[in-house]
Amino acid sequence: MNKPLVNPEIGQQIRDWRPYYEAKLGFRNHWYPVMYSADLAEGEVKPGKLLGEDLLVRRSGGTVYCIKDQCLHRGVPLSRKVECYGKDTITCWYHGWTYQWADGKLCDILTDPSSKMIGTRSLKTYPVQEAKGMVFVFMGDLVGDSAPPPLATDLPPGFLDPDRAAYGIRRLVKANWRLGAENGFDTTHIFIHKDSPFITGRDSALPLGFASAGTLQLDLREDPAASRGVVDVMAQHYRPLFEATLDGQTVLRTRAPTGKHNTIHTISLWMPGILSVENHPEADMVQYEFYTPHDADHHMYYQVIEKSGVTDAAQEAAFRAECESLHEPLALRGINDDDLWAREAMQGFYADDWGWLEEQLFEQDRNLLEWRRLASRCQRGIQTLAHVQGGA
């Protein structure tokens, strides 16, 4: 018998955000990125993994298809040895069972073309959409001809705006997806960036921390027909600290607020787990961070910078060159590499689930609690081991 994914005893003790606690593998019935479009050439087949489920993705005739990476016959991964004898099908390397990419239908068995099984079984397929250079897969349950919710409802507002160019990278991080999301939205985690090359490389006014500047009024967006998330206007809620003292003595000091780049203005966290950092790394840009569940102990970290006002190919090429030479090394890696090892450092504390009860949050963590509550209210379902194993 399989061990429960989460500890039910802990779930009983967490009242107002229990669904979030139970979503170790992520939220079901939501759209998630599985790869960048540029990583999948025409005719190419690549494996992917979302919410613990093994997937296989192919681009054929310009369209991207996604099926479960597991033969119905004996359960072997089709990706172990990809065999496609036509643009519309994939054949299992073990016994020749052949499936259609579009609907997963078992359309032939090369080792026994007279089998009565042909046409009676189907591999699971997943809806796919491409947007802003990313391949999104809907991880959920559709009945009959029902359609998934619009992709825009699982993305931050503005992400799909047509005048925005996008540039991104991705890394696999050894930490649960929730630790990634909370690290990004955590106000005072900025302390770990005090030695970042971004500060000197961009003449940035990056503080050591943020002290409360009055009552924290968070903007909660919960319209089911739109993006749902928690918005924190940092410029209104906090006082940046550029100096730290112990016993009246200054022990740390960072660049004064006269730095050329004062980019951090508003941060927000959106379902099903996407951070938006406005005015960063430049005033006309937004950095998005997708914390996509890979399995219980890893998440795929997509970092995307979008620039507004890009209307032609020349401007888009200039933006890409700027990202490659400046924003990727200083922001996406220079700053965010700190976040990667911070999340991995937290993983051990939360891995057995008791960390959710033993953590000692303080005043500045209120936005994290609001996020947990909102995510629990707005989720469309919870991924379980039964879903991964095909039993539900």
TrEMBL record:
It is found in: Membrane. GO terms for molecular function: 2 iron, 2 sulfur cluster binding; dioxygenase activity; metal ion binding. PROSITE patterns: RIESKE. InterPro entries: Cholesterol_7-desaturase (IPR050584), Homotrim_ring_OHase_catalytic (IPR021028), Rieske_2Fe-2S (IPR017941), Rieske_2Fe-2S_sf (IPR036922). Residues 31-137 form the Rieske domain. GO terms for cellular component: cytoplasm; membrane. Gene3D superfamilies: 2.20.25.10, 2.20.25.680, Naphthalene 1,2-dioxygenase Alpha Subunit, Chain A, domain 1 (3.90.380.10). Pfam families: Aromatic_hydrox (PF11723), Rieske (PF00355). Keywords: 2Fe-2S, Dioxygenase, Iron, Iron-sulfur, Membrane, Metal-binding, Oxidoreductase, Transmembrane, Transmembrane helix. This is Carbazole dioxygenase. It comes from Immundisolibacter cernigliae.
